[in-house]
């Protein structure tokens, strides 16, 4: 046979697959924005484009600012720009709580969950509502300081201003990318190429990862461009990516519909095979070890291949540690119901960011914990807005072995509900950042949870007397290793004295933005002398920190690794040099807005101590 005929056959097959792929994408109108077929597609000009700024900030995971202020808060993302195109550190912008890898390198750092897919790297999020639902054509993000944190942009089918909630809430990823380091902190307008979706939206979600940044990223505004009528796609295509021909993976990789994951959880009819090939020769434990490297969706897909692998993939030992946070948009009551039989031995469970807008009900969450809660040691529920008092009561009743509980930014839980946590006497870690916990409930928790080692009370604005809280900690929580009192408004030298005397194992203490602490009372000197194990100390925005405090830290806290004295006017270069010479492990020193520490001093210190990251922020 002439060699030309096989070549014609191959070309014919290739042409057929191209046509099939084109028809499929044209029918659905959904394409991967990072593939070549999207970049050459053009929407026909049948609509007038609408340009709108965010009307309202609906939800977010954290922010640098106070709950009772606008400075550095996510609420600054609503409306027109306040700062852009200026660059620098401005209070009128939106700033998340953390940056870099410093928070992963301190005593309070939590161990990561295995099986987290490499494509999920989000650390924080903010959700924005716009006035008019549109089919998005562009999203502009105005970044004014240390840009590059945004890693995902999503659109939601639910209209936050509609009186009739939809039967199903869909999230579509408009754009996503791994974290990238941007050269320089200067302002920019970030406009990634977004995917086209088949529903109008006025709810946009930004997810960020600040791990590569040298300082806090600051966002000023978000602009949504879109049209009222669904665009018609032109089929003019000059190039087709070969990856598009292999299989239709768009829905699995980028779709956030709940049905997608739930179908994978379902039991399917499995074909009988006479043998299992080489798998029959492998020990059960070895197969389990191999499967332990798969993500949850991959494990569910593999379970649909044959009975042997179904048995392995549904073994509760595969679900000892389970993080559903990467799939937050697809998890609902049905998902939890399908997972129940597989999670009877679960010890670590991460449901952070899941269940909002009715996806998980109180009854669905309660049913799951009644079956799967007996062995739970760690439970992550950050930003779980479905949680109420019943949920906390179920947690304390069904999880007798619980040691770690994260309720960060669960700001819908009523104050009285936190009393139930006191029943979990085995708690070693409790995160209550941005919750409505009140003083009475917190005192009860501290009284009965004497095993606490890590406690976060940052931005808990409903506590009236932090001195009383600190006194209780000093009396009852002798094992405390890390304490977050970020933006606690009323702690004084009296509370610090009680805390330092009773909790001498403290390795990490965050007293950032605590305005009632004054160096003249000797509170910081007392801390340095009583807490020799300190590795991280944040005294952010305390204007009274002085040379005496720094010298006491140099003399007594030689294990110090991270120190934040942003904003002080009283610290000289000489005392900082003493600190750097004494604390050999110091890796982070934030001297932003310290009036005696100019850029020349920072350069000199950097030259003498190259292993220390010395941060000097600016405003222009």
What secondary-structure arrangement, pairings included, does this model have?
Elements: H1 4-28, H2 36-39, E1 50-53, E2 56-60, E3 94-95, E4 124-145, E5 150-156, E6 171-176, E7 188-190, E8 201-208, E9 218-227, H3 243-246, H4 250-254, H5 258-265, H6 284-291, H7 296-302, H8 307-313, E10 321-323, H9 333-339, E11 348-350, H10 362-372, E12 378-380, H11 389-398, E13 404-406, E14 429-431, H12 439-448, E15 454-456, H13 466-476, E16 482-484, H14 493-502, E17 508-510, H15 523-530, E18 536-538, H16 547-556, E19 562-564, H17 573-582, E20 588-590, H18 599-608, E21 613-615
Parallel strand pairs: 10-11, 11-12, 12-13, 13-14, 14-15, 15-16, 16-17, 17-18, 18-19, 19-20, 20-21
Antiparallel strand pairs: 1-9, 2-4, 3-9, 4-7, 4-8, 4-9, 5-6, 5-8
Helix pairs in contact: 5-9, 9-10, 10-11, 12-13, 13-14, 14-15, 15-16, 16-17
Structure description:
27% of the residues lie in helices and 17% in strands. The longest helix is centred in the first third of the chain and has 25 residues, at 4-28. It is of the alpha/beta class. Among the domains are: 49-227, Galactose-binding domain-like (Jelly Rolls, Sandwich), CATH 2.60.120; 491-619, Ribonuclease Inhibitor (Leucine-rich repeat, LRR (right-handed beta-alpha superhelix), Alpha-Beta Horseshoe). Residues 1-44 and 234-254 have low confidence and may be disordered. The chain is built from 18 helices and 21 strands. InterPro entries: F-box-like_dom_sf (IPR036047), F-box_dom (IPR001810), FBXL15_LRR (IPR057207), Leu-rich_rpt_Cys-con_subtyp (IPR006553), LRR_dom_sf (IPR032675).
């Amino acid at each position: 046979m002439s060699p030309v005929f096989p070549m014609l056959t191959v070309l014919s097959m290739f042409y057929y697959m191209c046509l099939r792929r084109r028809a499929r994408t044209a029918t659905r109108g959904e394409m991967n924005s990072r593939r070549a077929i999207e970049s050459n597609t053009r929407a026909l000009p049948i609509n007038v484009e609408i340009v709108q700024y965010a009307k309202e900030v609906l939800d977010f995971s954290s922010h640098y600012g106070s709950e009772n202020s606008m400075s550095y808060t996510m609420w600054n993302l609503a409306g027109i720009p306040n700062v852009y195109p200026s660059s620098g550190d401005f209070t009128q912008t939106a700033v998340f709580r953390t940056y870099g890898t410093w928070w992963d390198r301190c005593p309070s750092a939590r161990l990561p969950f295995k099986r987290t897919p490499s494509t999920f790297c989000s650390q924080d999020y903010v959700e924005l509502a716009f006035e008019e639902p549109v089919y998005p054509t562009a999203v502009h993000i105005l970044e004014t300081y240390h840009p590059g944190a945004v890693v995902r942009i999503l659109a939601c089918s639910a209209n936050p201003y509609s009186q009739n909630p939809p039967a199903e809430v869909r999230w579509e990823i408009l754009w996503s990318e791994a974290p990238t380091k941007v050269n320089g902190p200067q302002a920019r307008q970030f406009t990634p190429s977004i995917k086209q979706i088949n529903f109008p939206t006025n709810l946009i979600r930004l997810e960020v990862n600040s791990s590569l940044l040298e300082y806090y990223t600051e966002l000023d505004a978000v602009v949504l461009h879109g049209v009222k009528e669904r665009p018609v796609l032109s089929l003019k295509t000059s190039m087709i990516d070969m990856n598009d021909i292999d299989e239709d993976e768009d829905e699995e990789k980028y779709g956030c519909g709940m049905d997608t994951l739930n179908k994978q959880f379902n039991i399917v009819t499995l074909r009988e095979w006479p043998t299992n090939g080489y798998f029959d020769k492998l020990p059960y434990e070895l197969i389990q070890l191999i499967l332990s490297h798969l993500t949850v969706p991959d494990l569910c897909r593999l379970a649909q291949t044959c009975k042997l692998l179904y048995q392995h993939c549904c073994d509760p030992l595969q679900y000892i540690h389970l993080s559903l946070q990467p799939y937050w948009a697809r998890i609902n009551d049905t998902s939890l119901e399908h997972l129940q039989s597989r999670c009877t031995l679960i010890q670590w469970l991460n449901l952070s960011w899941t269940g909002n807008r009715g996806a998980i009900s109180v009854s669905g969450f309660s049913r799951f914990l009644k079956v799967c809660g007996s062995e739970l040691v760690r439970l992550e529920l950050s930003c779980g807005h479905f949680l109420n008092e019943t949920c906390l009561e179920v947690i304390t009743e069904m999880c007798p072995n619980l040691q770690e509980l994260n309720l960060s930014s669960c700001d819908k839980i009523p104050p009285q509900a936190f009393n139930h946590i006191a029943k979990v006497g085995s708690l070693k870690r409790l995160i209550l950042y941005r919750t409505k916990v009140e003083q009475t409930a917190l005192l009860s928790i501290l009284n009965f949870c004497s095993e606490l080692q890590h406690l976060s009370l940052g931005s808990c604005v409903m506590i009236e007397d932090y001195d009383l809280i600190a006194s209780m900690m000093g009396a009852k929580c002798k094992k405390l290793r890390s304490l977050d009192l970020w933006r606690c408004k009323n702690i004084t030298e009296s509370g610090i004295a009680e805390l330092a005397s009773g909790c001498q194992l403290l390795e990490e203490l965050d007293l950032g933005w605590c305005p009632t602490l004054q160096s003249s009372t000797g509170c910081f000197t007392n801390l340095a002398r009583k807490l020799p194990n300190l590795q991280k100390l944040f005294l952010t925005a305390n204007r009274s920190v002085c040379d005496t405090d720094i010298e006491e830290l140099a003399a007594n806290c030689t294990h110090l690794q991270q120190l934040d004295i942003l904003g002080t006017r009283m610290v000289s270069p000489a005392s900082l040099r003493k600190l750097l010479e004494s604390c050999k492990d110091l890796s982070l020193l934030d001297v932003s807005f310290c009036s005696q520490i100019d850029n020349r001093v920072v350069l000199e210190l950097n030259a003498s101590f190259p292993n220390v990251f010395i941060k000097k922020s600016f405003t222009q």
